[in-house]
Each structure stands twice: as structure tokens, then as C-alpha cells.
Design goal:
Elements: H1 11-20, E1 24-26, H2 42-49, H3 51-63, H4 66-69, E2 75-77, H5 84-99, H6 111-117, E3 120-123, H7 131-138, E4 143-144, H8 161-167, H9 173-187
Parallel strand pairs: 1-2, 2-3, 3-4
Helix pairs in contact: 3-5
Length: 190
């Protein structure tokens, strides 16, 4: 395919999703040519194969103006945790402020503004130490609990996830309720 999701060819999908109020989820992307073939351990590959392709699609969607054209589009970036998002917001803002319209002709504001002002969601991992910070940056309403059961993990491994999240002293009960229930209910229109 060789096109980022921000490419104009995908605009009919974004337009229809926005008009219908249908949420879209982005789940990684091809990772050919990233150098993962140098790793001999699947754990090393898996550590990187979701976040980096997801960051590429995030960059394309933001910088190619998808949220400029479709500001009510509900979109979630899934299965890479959430700690990458503030980093990418900062990184894109730096580039935008440094290069301006030369490199970002499709957007009129800082990239982070689109994340904060548009319905952009992300899933977290219960043990992420940056979770509270992410919620402070993008808001409690934009972080969801991840679930792709029964994918990858054997039965029983995932049973500790919710209790671990509920035990976290750094998150309020309200934030936990939003992560575990309210935000997904809103995103998926349940």
C-alpha cells in the first residue's frame, strides 16, 4: 500500500465515519524495514512492532490534516500503551514550531491542539508508570483499558490486569472508572 492513513485516498472513510459518528481504531501498521529482523527474540520485536508503526500512522493522520478536515472524527490508537502519546505531541509540536507551513501545510494549529480538541483516544496498559501523566495531558476522558482477549496471552495472565489497575494509588477512583468503563462506552457508543 505504501500510504500513511493520512493520505487523501482515505478521506472518504474518515468523512463517512465522522458523518455517521462511527469510531475508528488504528492498530499498528506494517513494520517491514524497521530493523526488527536483527532481533533474535520475539519479545524484542513485539516491544517495538506496535508502538513505532502506530506512531507513524498517528503522525500521518495529524500532519496530513485528517483532524483539520474532520475534527469530530472519533479515532483511537490501540495496543501500544499510552506513554508514547505525550512524547509524540511534544515532538510534533517542536517540528511544527520549527518548520511551520514548509513541512506542515495541511494543519493550521500545533499538532497537540488536535489531540486535545478532537476526540482522540488511546488505550493504556495497567502497569504503565506514565498513565497518570498521560491522563493529565490529554484528559481522563480519552484513555481506555486495552482488551484484545484472547489474543496473545494465555488464560489467566490477563486476570490480574484489572485488580492491578484498581490498586493503583496514583489514580483516582473516577479515573479508574473512566479507564475501565466510561470512556470505552462513550467511544464505541455502547
Amino acid at each position: 500500500m505504501n500510504k500513511g492513513f493520512g493520505h487523501p485516498d482515505f478521506q472518504p472513510i474518515f468523512r463517512a465515519a465522522e458523518q455517521l459518528g462511527v469510531p475508528l481504531g488504528v492498530h499498528g501498521a506494517p513494520s517491514r524495514g524497521f530493523g526488527f529482523d536483527f532481533f533474535e527474540d520475539q519479545g524484542q520485536v513485539h516491544t517495538l512492532e506496535h508502538p513505532f508503526p502506530l506512531m507513524i500512522q498517528f503522525t500521518s493522520i495529524i500532519c496530513d490534516g485528517v483532524l483539520e478536515k474532520f475534527p469530530k472524527l472519533k479515532i483511537a490508537f490501540l495496543e501500544a500503551g499510552c506513554g508514547w502519546l505525550p512524547y509524540m505531541m511534544d515532538r510534533l509540536d517542536y517540528e511544527y514550531e520549527t518548520r511551520g507551513n514548509r513541512s506542515f501545510p495541511h494543519i493550521k494549529r500545533k499538532p497537540s491542539d488536535y489531540v486535545k480538541d478532537c476526540p482522540v483516544y488511546v488505550t493504556c496498559e495497567p502497569e504503565e508508570t506514565s498513565l497518570k501523566h498521560v491522563m493529565e495531558v490529554i484528559g481522563e476522558e480519552r484513555v481506555m483499558f486495552p482488551s484484545d482477549y484472547p489474543h496473545e496471552r494465555v488464560y489467566g495472565e490477563f486476570l490480574k490486569d484489572i485488580p492491578e489497575l484498581l490498586k493503583r494509588p496514583d489514580l483516582s477512583d473516577r479515573a479508574k472508572q473512566k479507564i475501565l468503563y466510561d470512556n470505552a462506552k462513550e467511544f464505541y457508543r455502547i
